[in-house]
Amino acid sequence: MKIVAFTGMPWSGKSEAVRLAKDQGIPVVRMGDMVWAETKHRGLELVDENVGKVASEMRDKYGKDIWAQKTFKAIQQMDNKKLIVIDGVRNLEEVEYFQQHLSTDFSLVAIDAHDETRYRRALQRQRIDDEHDITKLKERDKRELSWGLAEVIASADIVITNENGLKPFQQRILSLLHQLLKR
């Protein structure tokens, strides 16, 4: 089994990369779904402030790799697949957990986009936990960077820039996925 984990700053293009993988029939485990489930379990509304608070509290209480542990459990329940995509790695502890516990071909792919591009996308996107205030967007960046996201991006095996339009980005992601399936 091969695992490709997507990482990157919010609104860099991870969701589009994941959508393309799903369209190719590749199973996806979104780490954020684990956070959303815990947020709902606590009876909290799915807004950025609550989701971020829950993610941070769980990391503080159970360790920085808590979301990797929960993601790993979800992967273990999947049928034997040739390739699985993990969406949303945020810190090196998560990367290390996956590398130690998956005992498989693991690739970390960072999606990169300039801040202005990401903020423009955020203001246009309509996901339930997105903020639409530039100050709040910058606060989210700061929070995710405090979790260790910059170090994860810097350690990526592959970096794909998402600045030249949707079609070129999609082609690069599809090419990567096809290469990984052939390995």
Q: Could you describe the 3D structure shown?
A:
It is built from 9 helices and 5 strands, in the order E-H-E-H-H-H-E-H-E-H-H-H-E-H. By secondary structure, the chain is of the alpha/beta class. It has one domain (2-178): P-loop containing nucleotide triphosphate hydrolases (Rossmann fold, 3-Layer(aba) Sandwich). Helix 4 packs parallel to helix 5.
Class by SSE composition: alpha/beta
Number of strands: 5
**Topology-level CATH name:** Rossmann fold
Average per-residue pLDDT, rounded, comes to 91
Low-confidence stretches: none
* Fourth-tier CATH superfamily name: P-loop containing nucleotide triphosphate hydrolases
Largest sheet: 5 strands, parallel
How many domains? 1
- Proportion of residues in extended strands: 5-15%
Distance between the termini: 10 Å
The first-level CATH class is given as: Alpha Beta
Radius of gyration: 16 Å
* N-to-C order of helices and strands: EHEHHHEHEHHHEH
The helix tally amounts to 9
CATH architecture term: 3-Layer(aba) Sandwich
